[in-house]
Design brief:
Blueprint lengths: L5 H12 L22 E7 L6 E10 L4 H25 L3 E11 L5 E10 L4 H18 L3 H19 L2 H13 L11 H6 L3 H11 L5 E7 L1 H7 L2
Parallel strand pairs: 1-5
Antiparallel strand pairs: 2-4, 2-5, 3-4
């Protein structure tokens, strides 16, 4: 966070914030975000040039917000990222790039989001989506291997250590602790212990709970030339 003097910060706060008018008004807000789609939504877009398609798949689900669940969700996404990359790129040689990420919202509604993307030859899109879904199904049925669980833990601990050294991370953490009921600054120092305690069963359950194969949006961007060649 940097070096600062508490009394100096207090004096600055009094100078710049102390003169602001105080009211007894209770602030409120209005939820203007659209409802999340239900079921399976698929959309194909044919635009642009080139020889690559970009696929984005979003899974949404209800979520119980807590730091422990956040750690489990991120670890599950890391495992799935490894599985998808190894299968689609290394085994099938079908993608130029791929990635899986996850995050959550606490307000206005508690939801989890898992995003899967890859870029590939347009002619192989359906094949590669099927292969990615097979990796999801395998994780849900069997859980992660011991090796991939340890990889996910290492990724999480490395990211945590880097975050703790960044002012931007602390600024966001302080703000979140004031806004969101589940957030606590004290818990940030427990993250490594929570990461170490992760189990394969917890990762498997996260995949079952938050990668719902009946609840997702799949968007595919194809070059215009592919539409003409395929006659779609």
């Amino acid at each position: 966070m940097g070096s600062f003097d508490l009394e100096e910060v207090k004096a600055l706060s009094q100078s710049y914030l102390g003169n602001l008018p105080a009211t007894d008004r209770e602030e409120s807000w209005q939820d203007v975000s659209p409802e999340l789609p239900t079921g399976i939504v698929e959309a194909d877009v044919f635009k642009g040039e080139g020889d690559q398609s970009i696929i984005q798949i979003y899974f949404t689900s209800p979520y119980e917000p807590s730091m422990q669940n956040d750690i489990k969700l991120q670890a599950m996404a890391s495992v799935l990222d490894i599985l998808v990359r190894e299968e689609l790129r290394e085994e099938l040689g079908g993608v130029y790039a791929s990635g899986v990420s996850a995050w959550s919202n606490e307000l206005p509604d508690a939801n989890a989001f898992v995003s899967l993307f890859f870029g590939s030859d347009p002619a192989r899109v359906d094949e590669l989506i099927e292969a990615a879904f097979a990796q999801i199904a395998d994780l849900q049925a069997n859980g992660p291997s011991a090796e991939n669980l340890e990889k996910a833990k290492a990724i999480a601990k490395s990211a945590n250590q880097e975050n703790l050294e960044q002012n931007g991370f602390w600024l966001e953490a302080i703000k979140s602790a004031e806004i969101y009921p589940s957030q606590s600054l004290e818990e940030l120092f427990e993250r490594d212990a929570l990461i170490d305690a992760l189990t394969a069963e917890e990762i498997q359950q996260m995949a079952l709970d938050h990668v719902d194969m009946t609840q997702y949006v799949r968007a595919a961007l194809f070059p215009e030339s592919f539409q003409e060649a395929s006659g779609e």
